[in-house]
Structure formats: structure tokens, C-alpha cells
Amino acid sequence: MSVSLPLGAVEATMLAGVRIAAFLVIAPPFSHRSIPGRIKAMLAIGLALAVSPRLDADAVASASTAGFVVDLLLQVVIGGALGFLVALVFAAVQSAGNLIDLFGGFQMAAAFDPMSQTNGAQFARLYTFTAVVLLFASNGYQLLIAGLVRTFDALPIGASLDLATLADTATTGLTQMFVSAVQIAGPLLVVLFLTDVGLGLLTRVSPALNAFALGFPLKILMTISFASFAYLAMPGIIDGMLGTAVRDLVGVAR
């Protein structure tokens, strides 16, 4: 018994798997170290087989060996670029946590996180883990996968990526990341700034009273108290960022 497979369909599926694998390595929540590499590879293969009916096998079958290698590298670049856009959107959550740690005095306890491969203190880790959990709990990861699958219609196998559109989207995403980080942590930063101003005025009125010695426990108390209110808004924040990530995925592939 012999089974013959069309070479063009096999090559197209392989290229689709490479794009998906490059995306999963970079884009959250799949890029988290808690997800084994074997699971990512199996998911990439399964999704590649699922999208294989919508792939143009004839465009790949007519390519030479050198052309196939070029297409392979191109799919790595495309998948990595799409994953970077998604990671850029959700980096605002970790940046907001870093701002809270910096202004709240928690940055002195920063340590290397082997899961996210970044340095961060308590709130940066908390916000990052919360974003990952919410993406899985709310089935947001399915929307990201659906957006990735839609890129094969807008940017089929063999087509080149528009670098101008990618650069414009990345620049806009970088700006939005800083703005979103300030919006998430902004109210708490204002409270901590006013706390420092109040301590400064207290020291000015009573120089003998070392108000800044009380500043560290006071700022920690204020940070923990007011951060709990900001933490309650995380589901809505993640939902908005998820919509932005999907729009970037589809928009850059047009």
C-alpha cells in the first residue's frame, strides 16, 4: 500500500507551520516559558494542517529549492513580525507594573523572572501573570489564533510582507504601549506623587521630624491599597488590548 502526497500541498503546509511556530514563540500568551516547546510545536503543526485547505499549493510547487528556502525564511520573518506586534501590545501591562514598582519603592526587590525572561519586581510579575491567565480564562488566545489564521488570506504563502506597513504599525504600537502603560498605572502614580509632596511639606514644616523615614512603609501601604482598585480593571484592559492586537494582526497583513 502506497500513499502519495502532492508535493506542493506538503510544502505549503510546512511553510504555514513555520509562520505559525515563529508567531507562537514570540506572541503572548504562547511565548510564556510555562508552555513547553513540544506543545508549541504540536500546536503549530495542528494549525498548519487546519489552514492547509486555504493555501495555494501551486505557487509553492513551482518554486525551486532556493526559492523554497527563501520562502521559508520569509515565513519566519512574517511570523516573528506578527508575534512582535502582539507582544508589543501586551507589553503595556508589564510596563505599567514596572512603573508602579518604580514609584512605589518595590523596584529595589527586582529579580530575574525565568518564566518571562525579564527583570521585574512584584507588580510587574503580578500584572504579567494576570494577563496570561486572563487570556486563557477568557478564551482570548482563540481570537489571537483566529487573527493569525486570517493572515493567510490577506498575506498568502509566497507573498512578501509590506515593510512600510509593518514599520508604521510597529511605530504606532510602540507609542500606544507607552500611553497604555501610563493610563493603567497613572492614577496610582498620581497618588504616590502626592504622597511624596505631602511628606516633603511635612518635613518642611517640622524639620526635626524625619518624615521620609516613614515614607517607605507609607508608600508601600498606599501602593498595595490603591493597586487593588486598579487590579480590578484588568479584565477590561486585557479585553481592549486583545482587540487592538487582532486589528494589528489583520491590518499589517493587508
Provide tags for this entry.
mainly alpha; two-stranded antiparallel ribbon; elongated
Oligomeric assembly? single chain
How far do the termini sit from each other? 44 Å
Fraction of residues in H or I helices: over 70%
Low-confidence stretches: none
Quickly count the helices.
Answer: 9
Explain the overall architecture.
The chain is mostly helical and 254 residues long. The protein has one domain (7-252). The chain is built from nine helices and two strands. The chain has helices spanning 7-26, 37-51, 57-61, 65-104, 122-137, 140-154, 163-205, 215-232, 234-252, and strands spanning 111-113, 118-120. Strands 1-2 form a two-stranded antiparallel sheet. A hairpin with a 4-residue loop joins strand 1 (111-113) and strand 2 (118-120). The longest helix has 43 residues, at 163-205. The chain is elongated. The mean pLDDT is 78.
What's this entry about, in short?
With 254 residues, the chain is an all-alpha fold.
Give the topology.
Elements: H1 7-26, H2 37-51, H3 57-61, H4 65-104, E1 111-113, E2 118-120, H5 122-137, H6 140-154, H7 163-205, H8 215-232, H9 234-252
Antiparallel strand pairs: 1-2
Helix pairs in contact: 1-2, 1-4, 4-5, 4-7, 4-9, 5-9, 6-9, 7-8, 7-9
